[in-house]
Amino acid sequence: MQPSTVVVLDNGGGLIKAGFGGEMDPTAIIPNCLFRPLSSKKWLHPSPISTTPSSAAAAAAASDPIDLTSAAVRRPLDRGYLINPDLQRDIWAHLLSSLLFPQRPNLGGPSHSSLLLTEPLFSLPSVQRATDELVFEDLGFAALYVADSPSLAHLYEASRRPSGLASKAQCSLVVDCGFSFTHAAPVFQNFTLNYAVKRIDLGGKALTNYLKELVSYRSVNVMDETFLMDDVKERLCFVSLDVARDLKIARCAMWETWESSRFEWVYLVLTVCEMGNEGNLEKDDILRKPGKENLLRCTYVLPDGVTHTKGFVKDPDEAQRYLSLTDGDRDQTPNGNADQPQVTEKLENRKKTDLTKNEFDLTNERFLVPEMIFHPADLGMNQAGLAECIVRAVNSCHPDLHPLLYESIILTGGSTLFPRIAQRLEKELRPLVPDDYRVKITAQEDPILSVWRGGSLLASSPDFEAMCVTKAEYEELGSARCRRRFFH
Amino acid sequence: MDDDASNPLRRMSSRTRKVAPKMAAALASSDNRNQAALARLEALENDNAGIETVEINDEDEDSLDDDDQVYMQKKQSKSMKRKTRQAKALEARKAPRTFLELLHEANLESLPPHVPSYLRAAVGPPSSTSRRHFCTVCGSAASYTCVRCGVRFCSCRCQNIHNDTRCLKFVA
Fold first, then answer.
1. Engineered SS bond to A33: which of A75, A97, A260, A303, CB 3.0-4.6 Å?
2. Which domain of life is it from (chain B) (predicted)?
């Protein structure tokens, strides 16, 4: 019998990562949704976001982008869990038949291959049943293995750094900050310790919606522009290392736009003097950069539907300027003066407001949005922030594991792509962790794919076949009994 | 603050208090505010900004089960006629339920306390209850509260903008 192939499917709330076991990168990455643009009456399948430019589907999509302005979205997953199996079947069927199996014509479809599927932790029995039905009855896979994402992320990290602590001690703390929620999950011997997992009900979707809310009130109504705001969030948001300071700096940005009253002027001088005392930044540096020159301000140009259907950041340099704001502990980088002439050069271009373009400015929204992961309470949620979440997850484990877990914290999931998130987390975590434990946070360069890659590794391991539930077993025993094999 | 009422030594005046109806409504409004806050948190998980719910049902037809042959034939034969009651019931059964409904159905509260479940995995309230408030108008640190709706703002200017555009928007 020929070795059967394994399809690895990381079914996230935002993106599906799908490919074949044993490979380095997934074959297709598509948004896990259907959408309906304004121009269409039908729900359309989104085009794949592919990492490999060679694939034909991606090339076709790039040449003919669908205008996503004000597109309505339907997602099969709500809060990370499957709620609409019909929709999910449509999406999976489309994915398998038009993106995955055409790449390998000799495989012979799902009935000759097994499936490794990721499922969120603590999936409900009814959701599990619906998933099994989909996999075996509708798609007709020969075998199924259900994995949880923290253990796969751990597996990938351990194989990537064989000498690292995560692989030596066989345990790590996986912080999976995804589209629907954030989990802090201790993994030990490749098993997620489910009694110690802690969850914050905040993920990329809520953050995008929060950004929508802020922008809609302050400048342009973008409540319907999910895809646009996703792009804005990915390009412009960052994690602040000192929120109070950055808020003050951001406040200076309003100075020019709102005609400044005397009171505001006094307030600003006072805040800036106060900051000067802290020694973080030169007074002049900030006062010299009001309005458009503000370090945190950035302009995003909305699509006009004619020349460009996608929005873009007006000035990419402008978007990077916040990087010159260093942590309070360190000295200010001397390049602040070096790029001064550059700034004046561009000033001419930037001052001209192009009236043909619709654009909006972001200042404090850029860091207040990711800030919510660290302080959900600010949003009115009665939940602790990420640092405390990690501490509670660790404290629910055996005390002997604590130092090991703190020393191998793995950040994964799309929402950890915000710049400086690891630094900020370390800054918040350090005071909460006992002094004699080391805190080491590993951020992955490709956090969206790490779970899939772990799945690919697992699928290529020799005993994978034995761990699966076959279709025959499913038909014999039913969903609930088969599920016991996966220990969750 | 609440201790005053429970303190038995505290003498209460027997005089009946007269409260203006508007004031009474304002006093009761903390409940409204909580509801508004919860509704807002719910809204953060919405896919489409709350406009789509009606339309979804119309479009659902083309994504219905293909293997439901009987129903499909029936649907094709009288696709132009109005829907029967049975068909409507079928559709209602197939309509996607929200996760919260599924969660409620799963009845996780009945599990013994040592079993890890979705409910028990939630991280729980923060250790420090202090909440930073940001101005709803401009986003800066906000030290003032709107007396009518409880929303935060940071300065006189933001208060004016708030009063003009947003006040009582969420609290009906």
1. A75
2. Eukaryota
Rounded CA separation A80/A73 (Å): 16
pLDDT, one tens digit per residue, over A367-382 is 999 999 999 998 888 8
Cβ contact (<8 Å) for A125 and B41?
no
Give the pLDDT confidence of B50-98 residue by residue, as tens digits: 544 333 333 344 444 444 444 545 445 544 556 677 776 666 666 667 8
Number of H helices, E strands in chain A: 21, 19
Which residue of B44, B52, B149, B155 is the best one to mutate when testing the A interface, meaning the one whose CB has the most A CBs within 10 A?
A: B44
Provide the chain B residues 86-145 that lie in CB contact (below 8 A) with chain A: 94, 96-99, 102-103, 105-106, 108, 114, 116-118, 121-127, 129-134, 136-141
Q: Range of A286's domain?
A: 204-371
Residue with tokens 């003050």: A248
Helix (H, G, I), strand (E, B) or coil at A146: strand
CATH code for the domain of A429: 3.30.420.40
Q: State whether A48 and A146 are in the same domain.
A: yes
- CA A205/CA B2 separation, integer angstroms: 38
**Is the domain of A302 the same as that of A331?**
yes
* Residue A9 lies inside a defined structural domain of this protein: yes
Mean pLDDT for A463-474 is: 88
A186 strand-pairing partners: A173
Q: Do residue A136 and residue A39 come from a single domain?
A: yes
**Residue A322 maps to a domain:** yes
pLDDT digits (tens, 9 = 90+) for A444-461: 888 999 999 999 999 998
Number of domains comprising chain A? 3
Q: Of the residues A321, A348, A371, which one is the last residue of a structural domain?
A: A371
Beta strands at A5-11 and A113-119: parallel, antiparallel or unpaired: parallel
Q: Are residues A328 and A226 in the same domain?
A: yes
Q: At what angle do helices A243-257 and A262-278 cross, to 10 degrees?
A: 150
The ipTM estimated for the assembled molecules is 0.72
Whether residue A356 sits in one domain with residue A302: yes
- Verify that A388 and A425 share a domain, yes or no: yes
pTM: 0.81
Q: How many CB pairs under 8 A join A and B?
A: 155
State whether A473 and A396 are in the same domain.
Answer: no
Across the interface, whether the CB atoms of B48 and A365 are under 8 A apart is answered no
What is the C-alpha R_g of chain B? Answer: 25
Sign, CA dihedral A370-A374-A380-A383, equals positive
Q: Given A371, A397, A418, which residue is the final one in a domain? A: A371
Say if A469 falls within a structural domain: yes
CB contact under 8 A, A383 and B55: no
Phi/psi of residue A18, nearest 5 degrees: -130, 145
Task: Give the ranges where A95-220 is alpha helix by DSSP (H).
Answer: 125-132, 149-160, 165-168, 204-218
List the single residue in A73, A197, A206 with the smallest CB-CB distance to B45.
A206
Q: Which of residues 323-352 of A touch B (CB under 8 A)?
A: none
Listed residue (A50, A118, A102) closest to A458, CA to CA: A118
| DSSP characters over A8-42 | EEEE-SSEEEEEETT-SS-SEEEESSEEE-TT-SS
- Yes or no, beta carbons of B41 and A381 under 8 Å apart: yes
CB of B157 less than 8 A from some CB of A: yes
- Tell me if A414 is assigned to some domain: yes
Query: Coil, strand, or helix at residue A468?
Result: coil
Nearest to A488 by CA among B100, B109, B112, B117: B117
